[in-house]
Amino acid sequence: MVRRVLRAGLGGDTVKGALTRPNDALPDLFHDPMPDRVEPCLALLASKVPAGPDWAYEVKWDGYRLAVHVELGANVRVVTRGGHDWTHRFPSIVAGAKRLGVDTAILDGEAVVLDEMGRADFGALQRALGGRGGKRNAGEAMLYAFDLLYLDGHDLRRMEQVERRALLSHLLSGLGGPIRFSEDIAATGAELLDTACEMGLEGIIAKSRRAPYRSGRGGEWLKIKCVQSESFVIIGYEPSTVALGGIGRLALAARKGDGLVYVGGVGTGFTQASATALRNQMDSLATPKPAVSMQGRRQTYRWIAPALVAEIAFRAWTDDGKLRHASFKGLREEADEAAVYEIPA
């Protein structure tokens, strides 16, 4: 019934009515309990852009994945990918959610801070939050919403992606402010990827228009990147008397089987503030031995317990399994549940 109602009114008054008068417009639909949390649908990394009319394309936003729960209109919760309550850390998004004019809803999206070119800046977002484990709030953050999972008593996850997106578009139409609709881009996937790379963006997301919303990494959503970006464990650093924050280079590791393996280092991408804060955190985790085998490596490194996870941008892998042209983007929060890159055993 939900699908039939939406197909009859996509882009018309039926969809708008379902948003503004849900109880009148959809009187024969049963009420679905509102889930306390929804495990997010995750994008599977792909090397090529899928083509054809069954795929829609969006910009890949570089920030923190969030679910925004609106409960009884004025009560708003902001939940991270890892299930942590970060409502207090995104006051602007909370304020925007209270203006939606719905009784209940769950929006899926990405919190970002934009740079002067209008690009999502992960480092700026982290600085706004006070760094990893910081206590500040990101008042300047906005949410690019790309899916609608629940609306006024109805669980929308079983509906097709194109239908959920139509409802979300109408919900956000004309509102402006800190919650914005992540638009489909009217171009072929290959054209959009080329443009995104030219603009210095991270990449694009391709989504199956007819797929329901499924938690996990099932392939209905694909991510195609301009520059690779993954999470790695910091296992040590090389001190420097001239580099920012005294960090000459970080030593990084990825998961392999039940352990960790060294994948190279990174010495760029820091600011004075981020490097100084990172140095202080690393010094508090000092340990006499590295967490992985470092035979033949320089002994000038200071080793730390493998407790910090860094987001690293890089161009490629070398033939011996090391990162090439790597750059530090920031530390990942435990609440963001960023998975450490895993090398096949």
UniProtKB/TrEMBL annotation:
Lineage top rank: taxon: Bacteria
Gene3D superfamilies reported in the protein's UniProt record: 3.30.1490.70, DNA ligase/mRNA capping enzyme (3.30.470.30), Nucleic acid-binding proteins (2.40.50.140)
ATP-dependent DNA ligase family profile domain segment(s): 143-249
Record keywords, A-Z: Ligase
InterPro entries assigned: ATP-dep_DNA_ligase (IPR050191), DNA_ligase_ATP-dep_C (IPR012309), DNA_ligase_ATP-dep_cent (IPR012310), LigD_ligase_dom (IPR014146), NA-bd_OB-fold (IPR012340)
EC number of this enzyme: 6.5.1.1
Enzyme class, broadest EC rank: ligase
GO molecular function annotations of the record: ATP binding; DNA ligase (ATP) activity
Signal sequence residues: none
A GO BP annotation: DNA recombination
Alphabetical list of PROSITE patterns matching this protein: DNA_LIGASE_A3
Coiled coil: none
NCBIfam families given in the database record: NHEJ_ligase_lig
Protein name: DNA ligase (ATP)
Species the sequence originates in: Bosea thiooxidans
Organism classification: Bacteria, Pseudomonadati, Pseudomonadota, Alphaproteobacteria, Hyphomicrobiales
